[in-house]
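Action item from last week, closing it out:
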Amino acid sequence: MVKHFGWTWIGAVCSDSDYGNNGMASFLKAAEQEGICVEYSEAYYRTQPRSKLKRVADVIRKSSARVIVAFVAAGDMRFILEELSQQPPPPLQWIGSEAWVTDPQMLRFNLCIGAVGFAIPRSVIPGFRNFLLDLSPKQALKFPLLTEFWESSFSCRLKRQTGSSADMPACDGTEELRALQNPYTDTSQLRVTNMVYKATYAIAHALHGIICNKKQCDKNIKVEPRQVFDQLKRVNFTKNNYSVSFDTNGDPVATYELVNWQLQGDGSVDFVTVGQYDASKPKGQEFSLSKSIIWYDGSEEVPVSVCSESCPPGTRKAVRKGRPICCYDCINCADGEFSNETASILRPHTCQRQGRFRLNGVYQDGDVILGGLFDVHLFTVFPELSFRTEPDPPYCEKFNMESFQHAQTMVFAIDEINKNPNLLPNITLGYHLYDNCLMLGMAFRAAISLASGTEESFSNLNCTGPPPVIGIVGDPSSTPSIAISSVLGLFRVPIISHYSTCSCLSDKTKYPSFFRTIPSDAFQPPPSVCSESCPPGTRQATRKGLPVCCFDCMPCGDGDISNKTDAIECTVCPDEFWSNPEKDQCVPKVVEFLSYEDPLSISLTTASLLGTCFCAVVMVIFYHHHNTPIVRANNSELSFLLLFSLKMCFLCVLLFIGQPQLWTCQFRHAVFGISFVLCISSILVKTMVVIAVFKSSPPQGKSAMKRFGSAQQRCTVLLLTALQVVICAVWLSTASPTPHKNNQYIRSKIVYECTIGSVAGFSVLLGYIGLLAAVSFLLAFLVRNLPDNFNEAKFITFSMLIFCAVWIAFVPAYVSSPGKYAVAVEIFAILASSFGLLVAIFAPKCYIILVHPERNTKKAIMGKDKLNK
């Protein structure tokens, strides 16, 4: 807020307590980061000597800062304002914390007209006012606390009260609460009251989750505080349009109203809501102003609070020696220059009387008991000790109507819950509410008594009193809450405070069982920074020419992380790790290979098995028709050998699928190379046979066939294949392929692949296959013009053309394919070339055998011209 309105010269006061000191420390840190100068920072607590209060007031009077930030509890603020009223300072613009900015008792101080501050939202509790006004004199006689309230309200003495002041007249029964106008009966500003209401309902909902099903509750279930503590973490409900839930720190969603003290036409001062803050809204939309702010001088123009006015162009700042940087003189530029914890152990159920100081409160029995701590009195008086007689017990003074209303709110909420047939059916809640007299020792003692079940006021003579409570609503102050939570947290006794705002209580390591229905001081004062903190996954990048607190949050690069807020640089993940999408932790890289479950692998495997089956079917057809002219004319022995080699080509694909292992890496290319050489060798020999038969004259042709008969054909195929076997053996023995985890192709993944070992060996293997394919293609092309009906050479030419085209296209596709897709490209080339050979060579023959058997004759195959010759 201070930054928003451009104030750079301010004063600050706080309560000398955990609440004030923690809040002020947060504010001063933010102010320093924003270049806001604090002229003074004073702390005061109401029990400190009067001389210190006067000194604080004198500092405020003499200050030149027109804006003052007050992180002060309501009780301390009253003392400060009373002291300032005796000698009013110049008009000041007060910035208040939620502790006092909506306290009705402050309205009598005209010093604070125009004050602004974030406050707990005003709320409505249906039926609450009628409940407060239903108190009768008879009911007030039940508990001393209620009696004191009645007598304080009407300045009369109830009958049968021996401790009342004799100066007060007796109450005559005509007293009517509805005619009163005091903080107790005023329900127009239900702010903290609603926090008590929500805290009580939160415990009730936690109980419901433990002992109730959809229809009823089992009162025989013994409820432990630890169970309530665990269930409170999951509480999430809506009551009177107010949602209640807790985050991991036990805090609610921060919602505030920006309140402005505005002077009304009748001369009274009223709290006017001029803006809202809701942390649940999207970033940048949390804060909004709905009305104009009326400042301390009665205008809508933002007051100025600076130590020195801005220096105009042509001058420069000269900081005054010994003063903050906001205090400076404007010096003209020279010619030629310009400017533009304590360890405590609580033993539940241990009976030990802790002195004679009675705890003052109200109670009601029930199946389950809730505890409550409220500061119904503002002072504790300790009688002087004479050491001659038994000392009188301390007593409390100055009845606080507003806090008594808070206590009655808890009573009202429990009464409302007990009447609700759905929330805790057949379960009656009881309560034990205590007055802590705004004293740390009293609050701590009351909390220990509630948790251990040893309240002296209820079990005066023995230790068979009420059972321990399952949860405590309160304490309203941060300092007692810190002390109580640090001890009761050891036993997971849940404490839900309605007014303790210290951000330190969000530390679940120190205060694990602490919850609250009021937002933490982490939202008081409002954040004021040049740049928001950089979350994990980003790093700070300082903006050029600006202070170090002004920076941009740059996302970490791929493979880099930052796992803390406001990281200066990102950390590189180890080799086998990669950054997660949030860039806040390193996770193992995904290992990529063609697994059997991969849809691509399934498709390729299916194609491989289909090709194998087709080869088997063709072999069966050829075997069944092996005596027919078309089979005999195509050299049935070489045809069967070719089909066998094609079947091996299809099956070798299976070695390329699955996680690479040493034996699969060694055999995949060897089996592939030998199978294809066997296949191409068979085709080459078939081509040579065709040449020998059709390119020679009849006598020479017969002689050629004798010299290149079946034995020679087999030997040629075996010799050519054996050469490939030798190449593979030398390659595998000298530089064998091995499995390898490659993280160079894709940095975010590990590609599990087979290295080829020796590039030369693999090149010779492929080169030999290519050489045989080229020779086969050339020979087949030369004899393509055979008799019209004998198209074997044409089929071989076409098949080798397909083979060569596939493998020529394979090279660039293989080189440009990443990871497992390179293996898939190689498999596809094997399958495509194998299917090309199978279809081009054998499909026409199977077509004639199965569809046109009339053409499966010697005459049809040789053609008429050939037969005539």
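Closing note: The longest strand covers residues 269-278.
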